[in-house]
């Protein structure tokens, strides 16, 4: 029993008749950051997974048996990753087709929806059957790009739904402003207030569905701050973008939920209302995170049947043989066999050297090749092993559809970039440490390794002064040296927005996808042998003598390398003999 009123136009889509009652229970479900995961399969690793929209569908349908009138929202980033972007030119996008089958009530645009051609996005928006929302995106004529809010009437209660998109798309897509058509993205904390003033009086209860995390980025307020400011008028915030698992209440009383990523969870909110006073009032609310991953959930047969052709095509695309790899490009996936510490993050490897070499070979400026390059290890499981090289292996070692840029920098600017992108990634070494650990507040994909210069990262020193002994062509790098730096479009956009290149930098967008260039390089040099120049190393540490004893505890399963609470950053605290003795784990 639902009807939907969309935005200011108040267009009415009648689905059922409202029911009058003194007390009502509303159920609302949220998904977010599905990232192309329809069937439970990862095409990069060629492996079955325990998540995805097909399994989410099973949970949603089960919940609908309990409450046929529940509302279902998606907080964005569904149309990128896991090869789904390969199907964006088809008449019907497979992800949208599957989501339409699940009958969502609102879809919010995520930042990754702007990764590709703007005309493709326009086509995809039209394919969604549910209202597509983003209150904080404005066209050049000062009108919203899509509706900012919608109202769904359920059981006689008018539910207002405000949509918000991460405001930093112009930063992340700085290299390709045509992807977002040079539109303006406003502050979530301000735009929620604007939308609230528009929707109040038209809704009995208002919720926000936001593709933006609890904590903000680039100095912008996050949704935690937004919930604090408007919690007295907006009781529930469904958020996404950060891939976090959140179920908490702000001091304002607002409930905030986030269901992780790729369908690992479904966020569920139950709200009790009564209208004994003549208007609907929230009397209680409860948030839950319904587990999909690890919960023994079977994929929904309807979604699996719908996705069968796309799944088979994806397997074929991912399995295409591009060339051969002569030997392993990593000495081991995990440093010293300690699961959770990626070898490629703590020492130079042939795998990262390959990515940087490909970038340096293809990034040119003024007819000259790049002098230096910077690249990140996007996933801790990234590896390049002996044998056939498939298209999926390119995805495995270079996850994103980034394009290659070349920008002119000075030696001084490069050193500052190195401090920001590499120096601050590591925690300061403590006496008793037996491992090198990572900054919990810096994701692995934000940490860059550099080629074309030799350097050391001294983790005994404080942040800002860790990059030492930077050498270029066998000599100390001068601050006024002019260099061409190769990097991807996302990193270029972020660093440019922070002024790391100075005013009006000289740069060139090659428009070439880094991932495709890696595959082309492997094909051209097949069978490709690993080469590592060991141009950088970590210094400023001396492990405790009991290191091997601690490693044995990890190998025996008695101790784990700690990860961040959300699991997105590995190895966030060093294993330390003093800590382990205090815990009684080491004699």
From TrEMBL:
Gene3D superfamilies: 3.60.21.10, 5'-Nucleotidase, C-terminal domain (3.90.780.10)
Keywords carried by this UniProt record: Hydrolase, Nucleotide-binding, Signal
Enzyme Commission code(s) on record: 3.1.3.6, 3.1.4.16
GO biological process, alphabetically ordered: nucleotide catabolic process
InterPro entries for this protein: 5'-Nucleotdase_C, 5'-Nucleotdase_C_sf, 5'-Nucleotdase_CS, 5_nucleotidase/apyrase, Calcineurin-like_PHP, Metallo-depent_PP-like
Molecular function as annotated in GO: 2',3'-cyclic-nucleotide 2'-phosphodiesterase activity; 3'-nucleotidase activity; metal ion binding; nucleotide binding
This protein's name: 2',3'-cyclic-nucleotide 2'-phosphodiesterase/3'-nucleotidase
Bilayer-spanning residue ranges: none
